[in-house]
Amino acid sequence: MPQSDRTLNKTERLFALVLLLQNRPNMTSKDLAEYFEVSRRTIFRDLRTLGESGVPLTYADGGGYEILEGYQLPPLMFTAREAATLLVGTAFTKLQPDQSLRTDADEVALKIRSVLPGPIRDYIDRLQESTVIAPYIRNLEPGQGAHDDEGRWYDLSEAVAKQRSVYMDYYVASRDELTKRKVDPLGLVYYSDSWNLIAYDHLRKDVRNFRLDRIKKMRMLMDVFKRPADFNLEDYLKEKGSNPRSERITLRFNPRAYRWAKRGIPAEIEEEVETDDGVRVTFYFENLGYIAHWLLRYGTDVEALEPAALRETLRERATRLAEHYSAEPFGV
Q1: Is there a domain that residue 143 lies in?
Q2: CA-CA 20 to 30 A from 40: which of 21, 33, 54, 212?
Q3: Using CA atoms, how far apart are residues 212 and 220, in angstroms rounded to an integer?
């Protein structure tokens, strides 16, 4: 199916057709018609248009169309809306703690701006002057937030793509211990507060989750590992939410607060029901301490209904917080 939920016009469809055939050759006219949700006659017309414009289309021996290797599209032209979307995306990337990601985002934004026609560039400049994303990030001192995780995301994404093992010093917070691990990187996941590496851990002989901000040192090895044929990152994350160590968690949110909280739920939502007294949401997760810490930010706009252990954890933390503020400030 097309990657957009709107109907493509002919120019957009031709451009998308070239990209599709370069990335997925040997698609038949029937495949293409189903993908773009148009008739085969329309696809034949589009293919003829591409051929007449100089795109080197061929029909593979095994069936299906392809574009001769080496063909490159002419320089991209962005509409004002597309350019604004890309530049807002780079602005969000610049909020990441990894300094290398922030630097790359600046360079991407500069390159995008440099190819824009004058009127669109002026429009984007006015838009950026009137748009602020997370202004309080500016309270950080220069360089603060980068710490030891600079470059981790890019290095690990390269290790995932090249299937190269990684050796690292990893801090285990629950035991206050620095451990040495050899891992096979399988994917990267961003939860509500941090980047995480999903990798096969040679020490534990199992697939585990590692927070990037707890990797103290790392180096990519020359070892090339074989990715498990049956491993799928999305399936793994779903299974992780329903593994034997996970507990069923049910929360009731104030509807207004839930609009923001929903995007931060670190698991697949099993049930979501609107009731007279709020929104009841259910999911499975194994770390009650993490959930309790996350829920405290919503105060009385949320109530943990189950499990009882989560309610007790929240009660204990709220009591400690109340006791902390019941005493007179030291030195005042």
Answers
A1: no
A2: 54
A3: 15
314's tokens: 């929240």
Question: For residue 72, is it within any domain?
Answer: no
Q: Looking up tokens 């990209």, which residue turns up? A: 19
Quote the DSSP letter at residue 180.
E
Name the residue range of residue 25's domain: 10-67
Residue 176 lies inside a defined structural domain of this protein: yes
- Residue 105, pLDDT > 90, answer no
The number of CA neighbours under 13 Å toward the Cβ of 45 is 8
* Residue that finishes a domain, picked among 229, 248, 274: 229
Q: Mean pLDDT across the stretch 302-309?
A: 95
- How many residues would you count in the chain? 332
Phi, psi of 155 (to 5 degrees): -60, -40
**SS3 at position 258:** helix
Q: Residue 202 is which amino acid?
A: H
Please say if the pLDDT value at position 290 is more than 70. yes
* pLDDT score recorded for residue 255: 93
The position carrying tokens 């002419």 is 74
C-alpha dihedral, 205 to 211 to 217 to 222, nearest 10° = 50
Domain limit, last residue, from 67, 94, 113: 67
Tell me the CATH number at 224. 2.30.30
Work out whether strand 65-67 and strand 164-172 pair parallel, antiparallel, or are unpaired: unpaired
163-194 pLDDT, tens digit per residue, is: 999 999 999 887 889 999 999 999 988 765 67
Token digits of residue 315 = 């009660």
- The two tokens of residue 31 are 């495949």
Tokens of 35: 């993908």
